[in-house]
Amino acid sequence: MVAHILHSIKKSIITVSAANNFFSKSNSNQLKKLQKERSFEKSMSYLDWDYHLSNRRTALGLLKRIESVKGKIDNQLIKLSDEYALDVLGWKGFAPWLYVYSAVNQEFKEGWIPANYFGKIVVPQLKGNYGTIADCNSLTSRLFKSSLFPDYVYYTNEVWFSREYKVLKKSEVTEMINKVSENFIYKIDNSVQGKGVHIVENNKFDIEKLQILGNGVLQKYINQHSFFKSMMPNSVATLRVTSVIDDNGIVSIRACFLRLGRSSDTHVKSASHIRIPVNLTTGKLEKHGYSTNFIQIESHPDTNFVFENKQIPNFNDCISAAQTLHKMVPFTRSVGWDMIIDSNNNVQVMEWNGSHHDIKFGEVTQGPCFSDLGWDRLPKQ
Fold first, then answer.
1. DSSP states of 141-208 as a string?
2. N or C: which end of the chain has fewer CB within 10 A?
3. 89 lies in which domain range?
4. Do 120 and 52 lie in a common domain?
């Protein structure tokens, strides 16, 4: 009886030992990844957590709206997204945006960069505080010295000054405006998603009201090319060109899409815009545009303008402008340029986004856009 018990105990020890050995060999890498993930989580500040939780809520809310049209996302795509987020990017918290990308495409693509990974891993390491320079409108003329920007005068720290940085009296600014027949746009510093943009009618110019808005730039209102007017006449369209500059100073274009306003909008707003991918080689619009919920459409819902194969006028000039301008700010490794072609066939650059510009739409429709840059291997702490 005792011998039988000893034999059972020995057998159990051998079984447990074998199981432990199997776990050790098969899952040691997984354990290391989990430990790395926990270490990453411990390194995050309260603000980091808040940022990632906000992204999670936004992504999962968007996923739900996509699923209401396309059906529930395949569990295999969720699994692949989770594995990629943990195994490659270092944290499962980067997975929600991968769910969104996968749901729209109905497949998973290695190399995608989630929006919150871009914001908290890529931006701090490849831009630092230098990208935020783009939020200070009055620095544009000094940095680029380019006529491509429609900037007219700046207002910063209670001082008005020209593109040449000559300080102006309020009466001088008012006189300058009164001599011009067209309207203006006043754009406050750090304006995002169409917020902080104000249309100023020439005959209703009130300098005191503008000063209340805070630091910003007064730009000439752009009379856009007839091609864009035919799409939506009520607001000026925006061509977003995303560029990156490598370690050798070579600038490449990674994504491009056209943003159109709705009939009720005076300017393009992220809350309501229509976006259409643009073929990087031909400059033609793709067949499908997208609503804010990434729902596919083939024409503008207000004007019925059909997108497919429509050619962006002077597209190569836009690409060339982005490449030339980016070389002037090489310290900002990726930039989102907002530009358009005006009625005189000239490129007009409305603004440059040097810090956390949107990469989601490019990744969904044209990505992976950055898979050759090694962003997935950046240090996670």
1. HHHH--TTS-EEEEEETTEEEETT--EE-HHHHHHHHHT--S-EEEEETT--TTTTEEEE-GGG--HH
2. N
3. 44-124
4. yes
Q: Is residue 296 within a helix (H) or strand (E), and if so which, with residue range?
A: strand 296-297
Q: What is the mean pLDDT of residues 333-350?
A: 97
> Do residues 94 and 180 share a domain?
no
How many structural domains does the chain have?
3
Is the peptide bond preceding residue 301 cis, with omega within 30 degrees of 0?
Answer: no
Q: Are residues 103 and 198 in the same domain?
A: no
Residue 197 maps to a domain: yes
Using a 10 angstrom Cβ sphere, with 0-12 exposed, 13-18 middle and 19 or more buried, the burial of residue 337 is buried
**pLDDT tens readout for residues 86-114:** 999 999 999 999 999 999 999 999 999 99
* pLDDT at residue 194, rounded to an integer: 61
The C-alpha angle 236, 182, 267, rounded to 5 degrees, equals 25
Angle (CA) 13-19-24 rounded to 5° is: 125
- DSSP codes joined into one string, 73-112: PPHHHHHHHHHHHHHTSS-GGGHHHHHHHHHHHTS--TT-
295-298 long-range contacts (CB < 8 A, ≥24 apart) are 295/65, 295/66, 295/69
Contacts of 213 (CB under 8 A, 6+ apart): 186, 188, 196, 198
Output the pTM of the full model. Answer: 0.88
Does residue 24 lie in a domain region?
no
Mean pLDDT of 201-225: 92
* Residue 63 is assigned to a structural domain of this protein: yes
DSSP letter (8 states) at residue 310: P
